[in-house]
Amino acid sequence: MLKRSNTALGLAQLYVSEFVAVAFKKQTYMNILYLLFTFPLGTAYFVFLITGLSLGFHLVGIWIGIPILLLVFLAWWEMASFERQLAEWLLGLKMPPMSREQLEAGSLLDRWMARLRNPVTWKALLFLLMKFPMGIFSLAVAAFMVILTLFLLMSPLMYYAGYSLLLDGPRYALTLSLAAFFTGIPVGLLSLHTMNFLAKLSGRFAVLMLGVSQKKDDPTLQEL
């Protein structure tokens, strides 16, 4: 019985230490930075791609649309390359290659045709378009968690500034403010874990969409 109790206590201490340690890990703040980039980058990708593709297909009949589409095609490949670098820099992921073929070999036409046949080209387009709603969701979750945490942590200051958390008067207001402050600490840590989880999902999505398909035992997927 005592052994079970010691084991349970050890597990509880481990979980608590892991829960608190998130605030002291460099990767946590790199993940947050990645999520913060998601919304502006996703908006820029979405506007550029939708505008470019719509304009290109609309003008195909008078041939002007063809170079526009080629330019958009080249641009989204470079955007996907940038996203791969961003995932490696900020999330610490090892991205799979974008193609199994050697695209530098052959003529210019051969390289273009190889990219058109490459499934990653079209998965990358979907990834770039999905980056916009993903950015909105990430921004909304991050803003909610940050505002809630700051509100709880600043409750004592609000009390001393004359703002009561109770509508019926200052009775128990100080106690409530202190309780809110101490509640804000685990809420803040939970916010960091939530953002880490969102960054992990985003990283998995980037690995799946911006590289060739990997086997289940591939170490790239095991890192996520």
- Strand fraction: under 5%
How far apart are the first and last residues' alpha carbons, in Å?
37 Å
- Report the strand count: 0
The shape, in one word, is elongated
Mean pLDDT score, rounded?
A: 83
Q: Give Rg in angstroms.
A: 24 Å
Poorly predicted ranges: 219-224
Structural class: mainly alpha
Binned, the helix content reads over 70%
Main sheet attributes: strand count, strand direction, barrel closure: none
Order of helices and strands: HHHHHHHH
Number of domains: 1
Give the count of helical stretches: 8
Describe, in plain words, how this protein is organized in 3D.
This protein is mostly helical and 224 residues long. It has one domain. The chain is 77% helix and 0% strand. It has eight helices and no strands. It has helices at residues 2-21, 26-58, 65-91, 108-117, 119-153, 155-160, 173-209, 219-222. α2 runs antiparallel to α3, α2 crosses α7 and α3 (65-91) packs across α5 (119-153). The longest helix has 37 residues, at 173-209. The chain is elongated and about 75 Å long. Residues 219-224 have low confidence and may be disordered.
